[in-house]
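Ticket #4471: structure export looks truncated?
Reporter: QA, pipeline team
Priority: medium

Steps to reproduce: submit the single chain below to the structure queue and open the exported record.
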Amino acid sequence: MSLASGPASAPGPGAGSAPGAVTDHDRGVHGYHHEKQEHLKRLRRIEGQIRGLQRMVDEDVYCIDILTQVSASTKALQSFALQLLEEHLRHCVADAALKGGDEIDAKVKEATQAIARMLRT
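Actual output as written to the record:
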């Protein structure tokens, strides 16, 4: 699965160099758009893992076995988050870089804060 699928900006006059160029981001297309179905499939698998945890507790499964499943579920969510972050950087932050100005600083700060939140978990 390629994370670089789809252009970061729409083709057109000045796209890629001129501030004020209209991009996919301006049209409400988010970085994960091109992989949306794959993301939904992945999230459904994670949802299944969580339901499995509920079932394990309900069935009084051994604690360590439940913790093992918690760890696997946590890793799956972390992996999903990293992929989404990469797509955000490739799309939203790259879009802001195209436009320049204060927008790039705001997007970099936003991404840095998201990374900090991920590191705290």
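Status: closed, not a bug. The export was complete when the record was re-opened. Leaving a note from the reviewer for reference: The helical segments are 36-58, 63-99, 102-120.
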